[in-house]
Amino acid sequence: MNQVPQFSFTQTAPAWLLAGILFVGLLLIYVVAHGFRRYHLTVKPDFAVADLNTINGMLLGLLGLMLAFSFSMANERFNSRRGLVIEEANDIGTVVLRLDVLPDSLRTVLRTSMKQYLEERIAFYDARMDLNRAAAHYYRADSISSSVWRAVVGHARKDNLSVIASEIIPALNAMIDITTTRRAAGEATLPPTIIYFLFALCLGSAFMLGYDHKGPVNWVVLICFATMLSATVFTVIDLDRPRSGLINLDGPHQRMVDLRSLF
Known about the structure:
This protein is mainly α. It has helices spanning 9-12, 15-43, 53-98, 104-126, 131-159, 162-187, 192-212, 219-239, 250-258.
């Protein structure tokens, strides 16, 4: 059965939307916390606000550690996906070239099938965040590769040709296997729990800083703080999205598109 993977809101929502929500949340939380402090001092003039510098320092340090950890995870996954796209392009190219050792009648049919297969794999990436369309292209490509496999194996058994078994079949097997690996790598995004915890740390830090702030709110500093923190989170999330955003796999994917010249 052709199944479409299910993702949470944090895994499918645009990175700019999540960063925008965080930006607005930081401003609101900071202002609310600052107003909460002023309320305390108004109701209880003798209310002594504890020194929160140590706590704020620890909280910001934990936030920095969490951002670095999340960025490292996202960057590692991005590099892995980029390598898999190039590897798949090499595997498809190898299969197409090695089809030349087959008889002309079979080679012509299989080259046509391989051309269709390539177009489906290109469309699989071009579907971007349309997961239903991406899944449809994935399974159509899988069906084509299965038919090519059966044709090659059937010919090798019939003619008992060791050159096919030693050259084409391993290359074809690698081409089929890489699709599963690539799909798994694409679906392995940052866990929603980490994203939620990262947002909680950001908002918690904003609350503590706002509560500890003395005097009127400095909007220039506050907006700069919210902008830089939101931009950092945006970069982490965008890096973790292989199908969309500013940081994508369009460059490596062009290697797949270039394979059209083989036909």
